[in-house]
Design brief:
Layout lengths: L2 H9 L5 E6 L6 H11 L4 H4 L1 H5 L36 H8 L4 E11 L10 E9 L3 E2 L3 E13 L5 E14 L2 H4 L5
Antiparallel strand pairs: 1-3, 2-6, 3-5, 4-5, 5-6
Length: 182
Amino acid sequence: MNEQDVERELQQYVGLSCGPYNSWEEVNAPMIRHLCEALGDRNPVYTDPVFAAQSVHGGLVAPPTMLQVWTMRGNTSERAPGSDERDSFAVVDYLKSIGYPAVVAVNCEQTYYRYLHPGDRVHHVSRIESISPRKTTALGTGYFVTELAEFFDQHSEKVADMRFRVFLYRAADRAQDNGKGA
């Protein structure tokens, strides 16, 4: 398959929406405490109900960086009940099948619209926002794939966006690049 055919095939993944991907549980104080303890985050609006009640939040809130925790799959491939079973990153399997087996996370951008509170039920929908033309980097040659995940609460109010970018590539031949031969 030539490069133009590959890029035409890749564009079929752009804009396809998957989801919802539901949370297993409501946002809850024990999970917030576990994460804060693991990270050493001592902000009392996350773990001290008395302090949090007197804050601008009027009660406990989850650290914004916990956003993804609520809808992630665990160690199994199962998703929470009512979730879409499709893989939002199916393009990864396609690229691996045509010779781009390596993947590296490039960056993650999150925009928060409001704090999550205990009792909120989170879900997200996902789509591939963009796929670059084939690029060559120091790692190798491949494609940058950007996923946009939009997070909502139980009232379908958007609470956050997350753009996650990966590079799927074929590693550069270091021996050849260094002029040493194979």
